[in-house]
Design a protein that fits this description.
With 154 residues, the chain is an alpha+beta fold. It has one domain. The chain has three helices and four strands, in the order E-E-H-H-H-E-E. The radius of gyration is 18 Å and the shape is globular. The model has no long low-confidence stretch (mean pLDDT 84).
Length: 154
């Protein structure tokens, strides 16, 4: 029996070997929807400082509002130490390792906003770190951060 399709050209693996990628999930509204975005690659060895800084920031975001966010009015993530270096609040050069990483990778990151609201930041939900080995195969890691009402964990 023959199959009703043909196999095409190989798909190029666009992941850089021996690198990490951080996947971040945010929530908007009252769990009206979720968005996921990635930051990376972080080259193992070369970008360890920037990656460690970002993981610390995400752990801070998971713990920033243990009783939830009610939008605006002091509930922005810029209160998390280091958050401003990554997500467009601070361009004064104080975060040297972060500035170098963002500049080298030509990244300008903005924290997602509620698509139905008045520009309020989406809430941090979770983050997971993945590793791409020398052959480009993706691996999970033991690092993750997740917000839980009343009891954030990382």
């Amino acid at each position: 029996m023959s199959l009703p399709f043909t196999i095409g050209a190989p798909v190029e693996n666009k992941h850089i070997p021996n690198s990490f990628e951080l996947s971040i999930t945010t929530m908007f509204g009252d769990a009206d929807g979720y968005d996921t975005f990635t930051i990376g690659p972080f080259i193992q060895g070369a970008d360890d400082g920037a990656l460690t800084h970002l993981l610390t920031v995400m752990e801070g975001a998971a713990k920033a509002f243990p009783n939830g966010r009610s939008g605006g009015g002091g509930y922005e993530y810029d209160i998390v130490p280091g958050f401003a270096y990554w997500f467009g609040y601070d361009d004064d050069g104080d975060g040297d390792v972060v500035d170098a990483y963002l500049s080298r990778n030509e990244l300008e990151l903005d924290w997602p906003t509620d698509p139905y609201g008045d520009g309020d930041e989406q809430s941090f939900d979770s983050a997971a770190l993945f590793f791409y080995d020398a052959t480009g195969v993706v691996h999970t890691t033991s690092w993750s951060a997740k917000w839980r009402y009343g009891s954030p964990t990382s």
